[in-house]
Specification:
- InterPro entries: RNA_pol_Rpb1_1, RNA_pol_Rpb1_clamp_domain.
- With about 110 residues, the protein is of the alpha+beta class.
- The chain is built from five helices and three strands; from the N terminus they run ααααββαβ.
- It has one domain (about 30-110).
- It is elongated and about 65 Å long.
């Protein structure tokens, strides 16, 4: 409906989006509430990886968490076998889950 530069700045009455250049629309980001947390690929795979920097973890470890391949220990509690930010495979987690489940807080994937 709105084409070219002459309509710039107008807000579409049907969808509520501002008419502007496509390159601007591709770089604007918003927030929506989702049922499960997600990580945007720009912040994960970008050089440098902002998520890895914020978490002070290597990118490979962060990718394992984001893709639900590993569990991460956030609170080792009294368990002497666990360390803060330690990655656990699913097999490792299943071995120790029953003995320490109530004592520790584990999050999976992008919930970190």
């Amino acid at each position: 409906k709105y084409k070219r530069v002459r309509h710039r700045g107008i807000v579409c009455e049907r969808c509520g989006v501002e008419v502007t250049e496509s390159r601007v629309r591709r770089h604007r980001m918003g927030f929506i509430k989702l049922a499960a947390p997600v990580a945007h690929v720009w912040y994960l795979k970008g050089i440098p990886s902002y998520i890895a920097i914020l978490l002070d973890m290597p990118l490979r470890d962060v990718e394992q968490i984001v893709y639900f391949n590993s569990y991460v220990v956030l609170d080792p509690g009294n368990a002497d076998t666990l360390v803060y930010k330690q990655l656990l495979t699913e097999d490792q987690w299943l071995e120790i889950e029953d003995t320490i489940y109530s004592e520790n807080s584990q999050l999976v994937g992008v919930e970190v």
